[in-house]
Write a structure and sequence with these properties.
Helices cover 40% and strands 21% of the residues. The chain has a five-stranded mixed beta sheet. Strands 13-12-11-14-15 form a five-stranded mixed beta sheet, with helices on both faces. Helix 5 crosses helix 11 and helix 7 runs antiparallel to helix 9. The two termini are 25 Å apart.
Length: 395
Amino acid sequence: MRKGDTQEIRRLNRRAILQSLRQAPATRADLARKTGLAKSAVSRLVEELLEEGLLEEGEARPGELGRPGILLHLKPRARYALGAELGVEGTVLVALDWRGEVLWSQEWPHPKEEGVEARLEALKQAARPRAEGALGLGVTLPGVVSGRKLLMAPNLGWRDLDLALRDFPIPVAFENDAKASALSEVFFHGEENLAYVVLSTGLGVGVVAEGRLLRGTHGAAGEVGHWIGGGRASCRCGRQGCLETELGLQGLLAHHQALGGQAEGLEGLLALAEAGEKAALEALTHLGEALGRFIANLAVAYDPARVVIGGRAAELFPHLEAPLRAELGKAAFLPAHQHLPVYPSAYGHLAPAVGGASLFLARFFELGGLWAESPRRNGGSYEEVASGFRDGLGA
């Protein structure tokens, strides 16, 4: 046995118990059957987890033989993480518990010319008073993120920036908004082949294939909004004809105005659509059809089992769904793709910030909840283990 193997086995066994309880409450006997661990090992580890405040005992469940078994539950709010989105229109900050409940959220706008340092400082001031006890802070951005480097965020006008939240009391990680959102979907719903489409000011996709997030060599995998199409419109990345100039929500507003509509923002357009205005409904139908063709292309490229629509488009989904599904049915390459499940994100516009928090929650489960132990026993410094820099977040 190699040095450290005992600790790794303990971590894996704790992870098996926690993951089983994420699916449903269970007795100690249930856990022994589901995990294949000896009853004595389950009892010992359950006592550890109870002492650490991660589990709680519930009602007794009558057993077939002997005394009733006590159901074990993940303790609500026992662990939580902070997540933030530095978006084009503003900043969103949330706290997410390990069962997926948003404990609180905070949002604020910012001037368009405000730079990354000012926005990170504002985020630090908002998050610091509420950081105590959190596993970490995951920050998402609409751009190409590689480690602690932002290579490009066209819709923010940022390029080649070092990302850091200095003098912050808990670990901080940075990630692309679509990729973090995709990881949160996998963490909470378990799908191993998924495409998460963020459609707001820009267009991006987070792809999980066979349980692994696709990042690419430079972190640019999924930047499909910058696929070159047939259009001639100038893109904020500096090129012409990028897909998001046609499929982004700015294009939706422009189309609505070209049809004679007067809405200046998405909320106004949505209100007009709810009231039955013809121009608003026609513009949304056009976007839904374009999104259906786009998903047909995604299905050919990545063959996901499910597609989730996030960003501001999630709030428009009731108006987009029918034309999207009709166009997907016509444009699908494989018959199976005609009925590809497409759903809006349950977290709506909070999804990117939720994705940021999920980076740390997923890592916590992956490590069997052993962050409180010494760095040497965990195989690296606290920040390395907590943030996953040694193996890559979401690996």
